Structure formats: C-alpha cells, structure tokens
Inverse folding.
C-alpha cells in the first residue's frame, strides 16, 4: 500500500520532536499503522534557517497552504488562532485528517473545526492540547463514554505549578518564584498567558466540553491567575495543612431549582495536603476526575515539553492513520447535553479568609454577624499570632489574625461577605482570601 | 436507525451494574452512540432466581449460545476460560463485536480471540480486564501508540494492596490482615487467586503484550504472591523509608549481547515512600508507565467493584457501538515486535536482605565475601538491634541484624547469594528477603 503523507505545520519545540520521532521510529510506526508514514513537508516561516533536526532540507517550505493539500494527515503545532485555523480548514476540505495541539483555537472555535471534520468525513484529534503527554482526552471521550462525569479538577499548567511549588518549598514570593521558573525555562519571558490563567482556562473549556457533552468556550470560563498569591497565602495554607494550586475546575451540579448546569473555572485554591493533587510537584500536571460509576480517577504526567507533547501528537497520528488504512472515524463533537454554564456568582465554593483585626472582646461577634447576614456558614475560626510587620512597628492598639474557613456558599455571597468585612471598623485589613477545594 | 442489540453474558456484581446502567442511562447512551442500545438478553445459569435488578424478567435466559447469535454487541462478564471462550468465539462468528472483562482468558488465549475478531471483522475490547475503572488499556493501545514504552509498574490487585496497606498501618501480620479484608468484602473466602498473584500475573501479561507489541501469556510471567510477607518485612521496609507493594512489572531491556527483550513479573517489592505508587492506599489500583518520549505517567483509580468495572465495560460498549454505526474497527492485536521474554534468573533486580548474624568481629567480612563471590555489589549495609524473639529467649551468644541492600544484579545471582548466606556459620537465619523497585 502507498505510504500515508504527513504534513507538519510548525517546527518549534514540539514540531521538531514530532519530525524526529516520525523519521527515527519510522519502522515501528509503519508496523503499528500497517503502512509507512512519510513526512511530506514541514511548513515554517523561514525554510532556510538552520535547525537541529536531521531531515532532508528540501522538506521545509513556507507554502503551508500548498502543503496541506498534498497530505493525508496534517499535524498543526503552530498554535494561536490564525493562520492555524485557516490551514486546518483547508486541510479538511482537501480530505486530510487533522491532529492539533492548539488549545487556544479549540477553546475559541472548536465547533467550527468539528463541523468541518464532519462535513468532510475526516478525523480531528487533539490529545496534546491538554496536559501534554498525559492520555486524558481519549479517556474522557471514549473510556468514560458510558459513565457520567461529575467533576474534573486539574493542574493543567506546568509553569504555575512550578511557581507555586517553589513558593511552598522555599518560601519565596511570587516574583522571585517566577524569576526562578524563567531561569530554568519553565516560564516564558512574558509569563502572562500562564500566570494569569489564560492557558489553563482554554484547557478547562476543552475538558468541560468533553466531560459534559456541552459546548464550553474559553470565554465561558471564570478565570483568576496566581499573580495575587502571596507568600502569606502560602504560609496560611501550610498552617492549615493545605497547599495552594492553580486549579481548572469543571463541575456538573443542580441549581436550587433542580436544573442541571455546569460550572467551569480556573483560580488558585487551597487543597488538603492529603489530596492526590497536592503531591503534584514541579512542572508536572495531573487531572482528577470523579465519575458516577467509575469513582475517583487520576491521570498524572508531564504537561508540556517537546518530547512529551510529541508523544501525544504521534499517538493521535497513529490513530487517524489507522482510520485511513482500515476505515472508520474517531468520535466527533458530542454536545447533545447542552447544559447551561452557571455564572461564577452562583457557583458554590468555600473561602479561606484571613483577617487582621483589633484584639478586643466583641470582635468575633461582629465578624460572625457579617457572615450570618450574608447567609454564609462558618466551618472553623482560628485566632493566631499576627505576624510581625516591618513596615508598621507595633505602635497602635493590639491586633490579632482571625482565620475563617466557611462552608460552601454561593461565590457571590462569599465575595460580598469579604467586601463587608473589609469595611468593618474592627477589621484593619483582609489579609488573604482564597477558595478551598478538594473536600466534601 | 434500528437499535443495537446488546447481549450480556453473566449477571454477577459487574453484570448487574452493566444492565442497570444500560437501562437507566439509556437516553444518554443513545445520544452518545447515535442509536439506542437495546438489552437483548442476559445469560445466567438460573434465570428464575430473584435478583436486585429492575429489568424485564423475560430477558433472563439460560441459553447463552442462542443469545449471542441475536446480538450486535456481546458483553462477557462470566470470567474463567470456558464457557466464556466458546461463547465469545460463537458471538464473533455470528458477526457480533465483543467487550469482555476476562483477564484470565485474555492472558491464556488472547491471540485466539484477536484472530477470530480479525477473521470476522469485529471488535474486541477489554478495558475492564486490567485495573477496573482506570482507563489504561486504551491509553496503552492508542495514546502511546506513537511512543516506546520502557516500563510498566503497577498495583493491579486491590485485595493484596488492601492487605499490605493494613499490615503497614496497623502492624498486623498477613493472616490477620487477610481476615480483615475478608470481613470487609475486599478478599474472597478463598483468597488464593489474589494473594498468590495469579490475578496480577494475568493482568501483567495483558499489559506487557500491549506495551511491547509482543505476545506474553500468563505462563510467561514470573509470579510470587504475598503469603510470605511478614510483619517483620513490613517493619524492615518502614525502617528504610519504603513500603511493601505487590507489583506487576513489565520491562523492556537490552541483555548483555545488546539483544532487546522483555521481562514480566509479579512479586512483592519494597518501593521508596516518595514514589507515587507508595501512596496508593486501601484497595485502589495505580499503574506507572515510563515511555521514551512521554516520560513518566501514572493512572490511578478503583481497580474492582461492580460500578467501576461496569464503567469501563460501558465505555467499550459505546466505542464498539459507534463502530457499528459509523464504520471502522478498533486496533487489533499488535505483536509485530515479537521480543523474547527473558527468564527471571536473568532479570536485573535489587534485593533487600535482612540477616540474623552472630555479633562478633569478622562477620561482615564473611558476609561481604559471599556477595563478592556472586558478583553482587552492595549498596548499603546497616546493622540494627535484633528484635526480641519470644520463641527464643536470649540464651545463646549475642546476635545482631545485618540489613543489606544491593545494587542491581541478575536475579539468579541474588538468589544464589541468599542461599550461600543461609549456609554460612555466622548467619543464624536469613530473616527477610525482598526485591527493591522504583529507583534507578
């Protein structure tokens, strides 16, 4: 049989590894597919640029649009919205199946891609778009297809996990930890997409869409990054036997009227040290899934990097190549459930609130009254030594730290409680506010 | 379109949950497949027996052979070799796709089943056969199809993990821990298949076959159970910051001549407390996979139980049903690599050996000489207080405990070393011998 022609769009860190594995492991891949996979070309902006990749230089081309029309399988690892989207749509129109690692595009315009794949009868696979090498999307789309997913709780951004892990292990502040991550190549020179949670939000949208058979776009995801996480927050978490993680949280729940809905959010949260996600160190990723019949599952591994991401891309290439050889197509979009996405204010969460208060009788009563007025129930209150503040010598009246952990309540009620606490006379400052997850 | 007819063979703990989910989630499953799934019948030995399952009693039949010829998808959850094998082969001959949870049959005669599936152009899926609800086989067969798996290290038997976990947390001996597991329903009245490692060995054979594209049968697996693990072994492990787990280990390696081979084995081993598998508690399962490009991956969840296993079965049912609707077939057998299975004696392992020795000068030199004579290199030696033995009052000469951890060496050399140590005059007893894994 004729070899299958594979076109590679993009030759950065991931593309280089994909090309390398396609060529060095050619025999094994051919044995697994049934026919050889032939690298038809690599579309790059500057074909003449020297690269650390031992393939025929004539394969490099700047004519991506022409390349996709000569391929059976197109691998898109350019990233971003355009020209990636246009090229993927052209490829599908020309009859090619597509493997992409493009989380931003999938989270912004996934239905368009699925629609084109259906129209042209081709495959769309994107395992590498979320959590790099970890087989996660195929399990959600296929292994759990007979189950009902209740919740997905994931560490899906390696950069922020590295930064938070360093803050925990070294006591460093946010800026220092980011600088360390940059020095080691775990963070970009401009770390905005990671630390502000944009990357995690795109992944959360993809996970929620698959888990709940419902269209969820990046714009539907409530997003808070980790730039506001302080060394004091981390210390506070440690004091209560918890760790701070940036979590992507996708939940299915009933609203008070019994109507099913989903919530999708990305924010830092404290999770108990005994939770399986708490032990995820450095730049690793892990995703915790709760399904009705399967119970608790966890998937752990490397979420980024050239080789791990290339492993996920090639797994998809093999799958779509087998479909070209033996017939069949992978699952298309599954959005039949069409559940509403609940606004963040209505999502039930728990808060950890640390207050800097006047140390005199009656303060706790006043604080408790604010919680009660917002119908927020308190789980624990802990009073602790106020840390010494260099900028503010101990001159004024005695103060204490009051740490409150709430039961679950609507996020809007919790936010309003914090605002009201901040305006109380006896509260000098709201020192730290963070959500608590991973229990119940 | 016509509904797809699903035949269920067996209605024990798993079958009952499969039938329940098929009927209670019928609408959702139909939306995911594209057509309804209709339960065509449930083959059981005694159709009239009262059951806790709210389905039409007329569906129960003792005519399994007739039932499989009226189905599009046959779900086999009887277990064991016959009649399961005969029914699966009849079903395929009649054109049905098969989903099975039957690890024993797959490990004994997988190639026959794959061959029949190929011959009749039907699917064979078996996610539930290993690690219950954990999506593991689909990731190995598909997600990692573009990568090269180096090693699989798994806790794949919940009963033995529960028993060992209890021995660790309560200090109980083996017999007491088994009794606890039996009282809680985690162990059968006859726990042989679990505690002797037969169950884990079947799963190891399946994992190795998929990971290495090589036929591995249960008979190729070196198997040691946990019946010989003592409270002293567990205490020894704890003393060195490790835990004892029953591991299924599948490794690809070069032998000294540079020929690639695989080794597949099930035995208790000490792993460092910091290893991700060490934290797997109670009856949970987890599988650690090391692949060349993907790096380290871990999959964690419930390895048994009606609902978790039914979740895995139904995921497979959805996949094969989609193939019936949209065309295509899942991957067949992949055994092209055909690597030799290395005998256990040639596998490189590490030993933890605890000796009860005479407490006088020159003993260590004699012991070290035995290791050297077998070309086994010692990593650490630790001398420790000999635990008080009730059956043997301190009357004889003073004795000490010598704990030796080796570097890796061929298993046969390590076993011969232990034998030689046992016959040394200065060695009163070899108190504990266990392999050490999870480092390097």
């Amino acid at each position: 049989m004729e070899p299958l022609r594979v076109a590679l769009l993009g030759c950065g860190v991931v593309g280089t590894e994909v090309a390398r594995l396609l060529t060095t492991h050619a025999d094994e891949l051919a044995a697994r597919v049934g026919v050889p996979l032939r690298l038809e070309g690599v579309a790059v902006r500057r074909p003449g640029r020297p690269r650390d990749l031992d393939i025929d230089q004539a394969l490099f081309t700047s004519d991506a649009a022409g390349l996709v029309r000569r391929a059976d399988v197109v691998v898109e690892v350019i990233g971003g919205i355009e020209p990636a989207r246009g090229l993927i749509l052209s490829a599908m129109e020309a009859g090619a199946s597509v493997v992409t690692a493009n989380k931003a595009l999938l989270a912004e315009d996934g239905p368009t891609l699925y629609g084109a794949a259906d129209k042209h009868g081709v495959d769309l696979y994107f395992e590498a778009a979320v959590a790099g090498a970890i087989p996660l999307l195929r399990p959600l789309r296929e292994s759990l297809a007979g189950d009902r997913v209740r919740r997905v709780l994931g560490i899906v951004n390696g950069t922020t996990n590295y930064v938070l892990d360093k803050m925990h292990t070294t006591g460093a502040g946010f800026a220092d930890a980011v600088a360390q991550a940059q020095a080691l190549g775990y963070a970009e020179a401009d770390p905005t997409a990671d630390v502000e949670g944009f990357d995690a939000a795109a992944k959360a949208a993809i996970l929620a869409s698959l888990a709940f058979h419902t269209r969820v776009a990046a714009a539907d995801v409530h997003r808070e990054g980790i730039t506001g996480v302080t060394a004091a927050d981390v210390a506070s978490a440690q004091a209560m036997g918890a760790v701070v993680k940036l979590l992507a949280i996708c939940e299915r729940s009933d609203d008070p009227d019994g109507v099913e809905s989903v919530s999708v959010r990305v924010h830092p949260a404290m999770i108990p040290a005994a939770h399986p996600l708490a032990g995820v160190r450095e730049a690793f990723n892990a995703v915790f899934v709760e399904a009705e019949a399967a119970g608790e599952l966890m998937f752990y591994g490397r979420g980024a990097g050239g080789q791990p991401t290339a492993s996920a891309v090639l797994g998809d290439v093999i799958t779509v190549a087998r479909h070209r050889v033996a017939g069949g197509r992978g699952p298309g979009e599954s959005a039949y459930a069409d559940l509403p996405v609940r606004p963040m204010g209505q999502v039930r969460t728990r808060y950890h609130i640390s207050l800097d208060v006047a140390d005199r009788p009656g303060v706790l009563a006043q604080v408790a009254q604010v919680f009660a007025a917002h119908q927020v129930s308190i789980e624990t209150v802990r009073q602790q030594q106020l840390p010494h503040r260099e900028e503010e010598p101990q001159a004024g009246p005695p103060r204490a730290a009051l740490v409150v952990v709430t039961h679950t309540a609507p996020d809007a009620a919790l936010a309003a409680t914090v605002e009201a606490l901040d305006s109380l006379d006896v509260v000098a400052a709201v020192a730290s506010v963070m959500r608590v997850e991973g229990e119940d």
User: Anything to note?
Assistant: Chain B has 14 helices and 17 strands. The radius of gyration of chain B is 25 Å. Chain B has a mean pLDDT of 94. The longest helix of chain B spans residues 306-326.
